[in-house]
């Protein structure tokens, strides 16, 4: 620790400004470094073009970015990044990596699905699912060790469920007070904001006012409101109405709004991206902070229940649903609404079964249409049969290429994965965004892609010492081969690691070295520094 303090204070003393905005340290040769990265092209996360610079790291932090003199840091380990891109470790603002990171299985805790994309920090607790017990989660992960860093969101759904269960009703004043207390505690324990998934039961049972009251608490501590919209299609208030609601929640609560995995879901809203963008830009021009993340796949990942079952039938959760399915009159109504939802999604051909939940009699790797065909039944009946005993994960092909590209071109949209089990997005979103948007379509250049995968995301989340390659920042660094950086995961084989990341440093330690992972577990819980 002492070495770090001395080194950094010398480094700070010697900062010079070049071309008005770039800080480059002139490091005295006597200072010590653990690792030196040389010969690479450095993209610092700000959106600037790549430059031929060297980086020195000591005690988990970047102490120098500039041109090293020969013989400087002679004892440091050298990484030869010749021909490689050197960038800030990527930050994924929307993942479902929590269960891997909390697992007893060390292999899962390494978080390699993300690491091999160049991701050094994942947000967890998205879609309203994050626990409010941030300290307990952080202590657990700290003691059992993890591969990448993790940052936490408090989840509206989690909190609502704790206080009023799965019921389709509003909270009493006392219940709302307890929900506010829980969010207050989560923020004071280091959560970066409040996440919600108003599409999902029981969160969908909440009216806008309830969410505003809770987002206010997050905003009080500088936290943001991260939302899976109430509707990405035409299920209830419509995609446009749901964006409007998110903006209203942001405006009334004072919280910055971040729209998760922005998309136009289903043929009925295809082409609506322009209209959504116009509305968001209007809000931004009026001074509101509004951003979004996006994964570059045409299928979303969800469950049969979430995709097809009408929300009124989910009062009381899946147990409530199963009781209703046993009543022929109610079953007929559910089936009718499910038919409309299946149409919204694009039909039974567009739902690929990727995993079983609660039963093991459903084939995976086939569509709902194929399952129905094999059983000589109707797709709706096949889906209802699945729901009677369990549920199934599905990849739901519901986005069109134009909307994906239109959203991807916006400078307020950042890279995310929504990484979850059974969908290749968990293993390949960042390299796929690079392949599709930078290499193939030339929608973005490399500095833009890096910015929206690192610095811009750090700014949105409020991660103060991440996302940029400059002295004083934590040494989270990805070094990848621009020719080989690519996804390998597919819908049929969703668990294939991506290629091209040669080195990945997390807090100054190598999680990936020479393309293979090490035994290090350098990840940390990153907690928001909140004054409570
Ligand atoms: Zn979501």
Helix and strand composition category: alpha/beta
Distance between the termini: 28 Å
Counted by DSSP, the helix tally is 19
Low-pLDDT stretches are 1-23, 26-30
How many β-strands, per DSSP?
26
Report the sheet with the most strands, covering strand number, pairing sense and barrel closure.
7 strands, mixed
Give me the oligomer status.
single chain
Q: Could you give the order of strands across the largest sheet? A: 5-4-9-22-23-24-25
Each distinct ligand: zinc ion
Radius of gyration: 24 Å
Mean pLDDT: 93
Strand content: 15-25%
Rough shape?
Answer: globular
Describe this structure in words.
The protein is of the alpha/beta class. It contains 19 helices and 26 strands. The strands form six sheets. Strands 5-4-9-22-23-24-25 form a seven-stranded mixed sheet, with no helix packed on it. A six-stranded parallel sheet has the order 13-14-15-16-17-21, sandwiched between helices. Strand 4 and strand 5 form a beta hairpin. The structure holds zinc ion. Zinc ion binds near residues 228 and 418.
């Amino acid at each position: 620790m002492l070495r770090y303090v001395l080194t950094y204070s010398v480094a700070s003393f010697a900062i010079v400004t070049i071309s008005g905005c770039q800080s480059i340290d002139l490091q005295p040769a006597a200072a010590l470094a653990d690792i030196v990265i040389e010969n690479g092209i450095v993209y610092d996360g700000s959106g600037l073009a790549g430059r031929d610079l060297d980086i020195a790291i000591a005690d988990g932090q970047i102490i120098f970015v500039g041109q090293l003199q020969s013989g400087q840091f002679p004892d440091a380990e050298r990484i030869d990044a010749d021909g490689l891109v050197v960038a800030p470790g990527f930050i994924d603002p929307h993942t479902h990596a929590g269960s891997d990171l909390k697992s007893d299985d060390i292999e899962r805790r390494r978080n390699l699905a993300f690491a091999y994309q160049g991701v050094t920090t994942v947000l967890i607790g998205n879609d309203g699912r994050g626990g409010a017990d941030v300290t307990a989660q952080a202590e657990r992960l700290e003691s059992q060790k993890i591969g990448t860093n993790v940052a936490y969101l408090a989840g509206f759904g989690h909190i609502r469920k704790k206080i009023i269960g799965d019921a389709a009703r509003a909270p009493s004043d006392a219940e709302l007070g307890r929900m506010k207390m829980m969010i207050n505690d989560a923020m004071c324990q280091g959560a970066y904001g409040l996440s919600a998934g108003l599409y999902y039961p029981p969160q969908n049972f909440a009216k806008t006012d309830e969410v505003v009251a809770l987002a206010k608490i997050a905003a009080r501590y500088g936290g943001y409101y991260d939302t899976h919209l109430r509707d990405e299609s035409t299920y209830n208030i419509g995609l446009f109405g749901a964006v409007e609601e998110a903006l209203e929640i942001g405006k009334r609560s004072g919280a910055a709004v971040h729209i998760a995995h922005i998309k136009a879901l289903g043929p009925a809203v295809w082409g609506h991206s322009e209209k959504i963008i116009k509305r968001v830009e209007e809000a931004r021009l009026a001074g509101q902070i509004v951003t979004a993340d996006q994964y570059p796949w045409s299928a979303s990942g969800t469950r049969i229940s979430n995709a097809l079952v009408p929300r009124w039938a989910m009062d009381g959760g899946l147990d409530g649903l199963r009781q209703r399915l046993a009543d022929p009159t109610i079953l007929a109504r559910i089936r009718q609404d499910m038919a409309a939802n299946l149409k919204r999604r694009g039909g039974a051909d567009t739902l690929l079964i990727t995993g079983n939940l609660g039963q093991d009699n459903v084939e995976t790797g086939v569509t709902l249409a194929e399952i129905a065909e094999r059983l000589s039944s109707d797709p709706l009946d096949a889906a209802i049969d699945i729901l009677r005993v369990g549920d199934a994960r599905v990849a739901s092909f519901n986005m069109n290429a134009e909307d994906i590209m239109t959203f991807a071109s916006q400078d307020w949209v950042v890279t995310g994965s929504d990484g979850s089990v059974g969908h290749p997005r968990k293993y390949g979103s960042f390299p796929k965004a690079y392949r599709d948007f930078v290499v193939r379509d030339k929608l973005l250049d490399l500095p833009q892609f890096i910015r929206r995968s690192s610095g811009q995301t750090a700014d949105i989340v409020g991660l103060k010492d991440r996302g940029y390659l400059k002295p004083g920042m934590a040494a989270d660094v990805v070094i990848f081969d621009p020719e080989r950086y690519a996804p390998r995961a597919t819908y049929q084989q969703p668990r294939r690691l991506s290629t091209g990341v040669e080195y990945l440093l997390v807090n100054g330690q190598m999680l990936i070295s020479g393309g293979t992972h090490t035994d290090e577990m350098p990840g940390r819980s990153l907690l928001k520094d909140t004054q409570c």
